[in-house]
Amino acid sequence: MIRIVHRLNMVILLAIAFSFSPGTSLGQVTTGTPPFGSFSGGPDVVNNANLNAHIAIPVVQKPGRGTPFTYTLTYDSSVWSPVGVSGSQTWQPVSNWGWASQTQAAIGQVNYTRTSTIRCRLNPGELPPQYGTVYIYWDWYYVDEFGTFHPSGLTTQDSDCGDITSGSAVVTDGSGYTIHATGYPSGYAVSRYGKTINTSNTPGFTDRNGNEITVSNGVVTDTLGTTALTVTGTAPNPIYFTYTPPSGTPVFYL
Questions:
Q1: Domain ranges within the chain, ordered by starting residue
Q2: 25-38 per-position pLDDT tens digit
Q3: What's the pTM value of the predicted model, to 2 decimals?
Q4: CB-CB contact of 145 with 72 (8 Å)
Q5: Between 20 and 30 A from 223 (CA), which of 41, 51, 55, 211?
Q6: What are phi and psi of 36, to 5 degrees?
């Protein structure tokens, strides 16, 4: 039993070491356990289509008003992906080296695959010509709290020249999420059951009855308005997951 607890604590510590830096690239391999997939193995679940190994580590689960609270750390083994144009690509690691970030583990993550830029002309007709930059945000996606990647193919942009676009798209894997995004960039996802997940600006989600789960500075507040989990510390120093069980005395994972 002591060995099992020690190993779990080490896994959680390693996960948090990579949990506080947001990413802008997820790579091309589908992670998690997408709908209609074929899987094998356990406790690491292997996607038979691409051999990605997915591991889920439950930390806290508790009931709530309308929506229960679940915090699960996840890891996906497909870490490396090719980046760049054909003929000059390089291999780069995905964000957090496959571990879910702090916010993603609580509510999921809305983001885009990559960014690119082109030039635009400021004040057409003015001489000498002045140029600005157009920022293009490619392939918006949602990664749910269990690490499953839901791509949409949606692309948006903003610009120094005032050309800002927005759009919405249903994800392509049949899970029913719709992603709404604009330039700046900002975006959120809505499930087929009316749950709104916003991780671009104010992390949290709201179900169709208005119940909210929010994340702020490492404190996760559940739909009952109580602190469900507090994450403190910064790797490589010890990281603490603190929560209050039914006994009423706060406990923590280290």
A1: 2-253
A2: 444 577 888 888 89
A3: 0.64
A4: yes
A5: 55
A6: 65, 15
